Amino acid sequence: MSQNSQSLLLFFDDPKLRERSESLLEALKDVDPDSSEPAVVEEGDAFANQLATIWQEEWFNTSYECHADCLKLNYDSRSGEGVPLALLHGWFEQGLTAAALEIFFDQEGELKRYHFVDDALVSKSHLEEAYPQWVATIAETLPFGSSEDYDFDEDEVDEEADDDYCVTPSAPIALSRLIADEKARAEKAQAMVEELTNFSRLSAGCDTSLLAKTSRVVRTLVMGVSHIVLATALSVLVLRTFRFWFLVGLFLLVGLPLLTEISLWGAGVFLWGVITYRMVLHGRSPFTSVNIFATYLVFAAVAVLLALYFYPLTQTWLQYAYIGCLALAVLAFLVDMFWPETDEEDEEEEEESGYSGCTLVCSIVLYGPQVIPALLATSKCWELAKGFHWIG
Prior knowledge:
Elements: E1 3-11, H1 15-29, H2 46-57, E2 59-66, E3 71-78, H3 85-94, E4 98-105, E5 110-117, E6 120-122, H4 124-130, H5 135-141, E7 173-174, H6 175-202, H7 208-238, H8 242-259, H9 264-280, H10 290-309, H11 316-338, H12 343-353, H13 360-387
Antiparallel strand pairs: 1-3, 1-4, 2-3, 4-5, 5-6, 6-7
Helix pairs in contact: 2-3, 3-6, 6-7, 7-8, 8-9, 9-10, 9-13, 10-11, 10-13, 11-13
């Protein structure tokens, strides 16, 4: 049976938590894995019960080692089991400082290493900068997949390129978020299974793989039709040139989610921005005034920010560029809001718009597709700034 071999290093700043964790592991060490009786742990200790359940029901070939500055867990898990996110999240809530996890996926023949600091998945460099005193321990305890434990050719390993198998997020990702994402994927997969099961009952005798493909096709067609209906409704209600803007809306609501990583709601914000652009700036040269030029700049910057929001920015220069783009958008927005206009420009704007004051609805329509991407970009830049250690 295929299985994953895992090694987990646990680092503690709190000696009492380390002592308690060591005592708990010592108690679990002698638990019979074939016994149906649950392991005996301290009553009312939710974390201890969680660890005992995983130790007895999900892991096998378990052992642990005590090192000078860390505890090391060695265990095997089923091929479908990956990072024990819930357990690590619970350990961090108890006061765990940092962790490093190495998994050899036997079925794929791949090795991956994960680093965790302050209840978040981080890059290797992040952990090394935060806790340089533990770098040597990690290198000695998990040397290139511990080639003694795994079928790993040490001659083929470049000792200066161990980053190749390290999972490197562009910014720290909270474990709670990873757990929520994993739960959402599981629920989606379960919904697909139920949908396929119901469909198969109506098509008894058909090939299962054909049913799966048919189910996915029907699901995609229904989603595409709903997008087309929405794009048509928006085009008819808001825009005069039906054909051109219908094609624009169709591409944004259908093409973007299918061809890129951009989600449907993100494509909807793009369409909102296009409609706002059509209403506010259509036919106006960007060089008419400083305000109009700044408005054009805001639209362009927030479009870039929204598009890149859906992608992991793994390269450092891209992360800096993203932060710079947000700063440019904010600066252009401030110029647009506070740059003084001449009386002639004010009169011309009133004549073109047909009203002298902007209502609340007008403000929401105009600034909504600008503020929403800016807020999303701000949250992403906040995580990037923490990754650069600009923020504690």
